[in-house]
């Protein structure tokens, strides 16, 4: 997702209704995939993009596709990795394969990517940090407000199977976002 889109993120929590049920944390088996997503986020940061990365994993556990944020290098604020993976999945997988696939992603989907995920009929999402965590980090950094409201994934795609966050990766992810905003404010 885009870090400036998380102004109202919430990974579950206090409100009533569907989003009240907080997703289960990522499992030990999820970690290698999430670590790869975080590596892709670091790659994005090195290239001058926002630190987000994602991969699409088939029902057999094989990595099918991966991408990273490219909003600055391509000058297009919709170039989120989760959206790129939806495009890839629609072009390369049938409906059954899409439903069996899992998207592992460094950050919980933004509203745009969540909707695309739902329309494409993709399966489980596992994220390393939640939208709520990102909101907390960005608020502390005085990041500019988002033009798009961020909602918990299951508020956008009811019934979606979701796991996250992954506390083992929190400090590394927080450092990536801090570094991105340090460079933004320094102009470096
Ligand atoms: Zn997005």
From TrEMBL:
Residues 1-28 are annotated as: Disordered. Keywords: Hydrolase. CDD domains: nucleoside_deaminase. It is an enzyme of class 3 (hydrolase). InterPro entries: CMP_dCMP_dom, Cytidine_deaminase-like. Its EC number is 3.5.4.33. GO terms for molecular function: tRNA-specific adenosine-34 deaminase activity. Residues 28-141 form the CMP/dCMP-type deaminase domain. This is Nucleoside deaminase. It comes from Streptomyces andamanensis. The lineage of its organism: Bacteria, Bacillati, Actinomycetota, Actinomycetes, Kitasatosporales.
